[in-house]
Amino acid sequence: MRPEPHQSLTIDDFIALANLADPTLNLPSLSTFYQPGYSVAEGTAALQAFMEELKGTPFHDRVWDVSPEQMARNYETVRSIRETLRELARAVAKPPGERPSVVPSHCPMPLARFRFSTTGSAYLETVSADTPAWRKFLEELELVDIERRLKICAKCGRLFWTRRKDQRACPGSCSPHGLKQAAARGGGATAV
């Protein structure tokens, strides 16, 4: 029996999914497109119009599907993973005394939430996932040290895993080393 594609995903894969869209792009929830009083056709047309504006981007390429139902599921799964990871990264960036006691997930239904203990460590509470991919995402979050490793790059705004506690930029071109390499190649970037 072949494993489902989502079964082999790691937290790095979920971060890559979250980074498909520009960090400054607002990804409205699916309910924005499928509002009460709208027909399914009107909601689908609104989602398709939004996705057409993103044509040629990695986000569009990953989410777009001929089937409107599958496209809606793809959109909401990627959006939910992105927003949940960004919310967690913002929360763990705060000192333990200033963190919210609960960080809700951004799944369409409140299926999981993340709490902070009195010592400041994050833990998952209430899990009831509605898709295999979302369930795998929550399983992966339980296996990693969110508090010390999940960050938002101070330069580009993308999510990344730190290698060191004091790392403030993603390991690519935003890191001081990456900026030096780009400048040496004639990229015009300067080290920070």
Topology, pairings included?
Elements: H1 11-18, H2 30-33, H3 40-53, H4 58-63, H5 68-92, E1 102-104, E2 113-116, E3 122-125, H6 132-143, H7 146-149, E4 150-152, E5 159-161, H8 176-184
Antiparallel strand pairs: 1-2, 2-3, 4-5
Structure description:
With 192 residues, the chain is mostly helical. It has helices at 11-18, 30-33, 40-53, 58-63, 68-92, 132-143, 146-149, 176-184, and strands at 102-104, 113-116, 122-125, 150-152, 159-161. The protein has a three-stranded antiparallel sheet, covered by helices on one side.
Which characteristics define this entry?
single chain; about 190 residues; mainly alpha; disordered C terminus; two-stranded antiparallel ribbon; 2 domains
Mean pLDDT: 77
Level of helix content?
A: 40-55%
Strand content: 5-15%
Give the structural class: mainly alpha
Order of neighbouring strands in the sheet with most strands: 1-2-3
End-to-end separation in angstroms reads: 51 Å
Shape: globular
Poorly predicted regions are 187-192
Element-level helix/strand string: HHHHHEEEHHEEH
Biggest sheet features: 3 strands, antiparallel
Tell how many strands the DSSP assignment holds.
Answer: 5
Task: Indicate the radius of gyration in whole angstroms.
Answer: 18 Å
Helical stretch count? 8
Number of domains: 2
Short description:
Helix content is 43%, strand content 9%. It has 8 helices and 5 strands, in the order H-H-H-H-H-E-E-E-H-H-E-E-H.
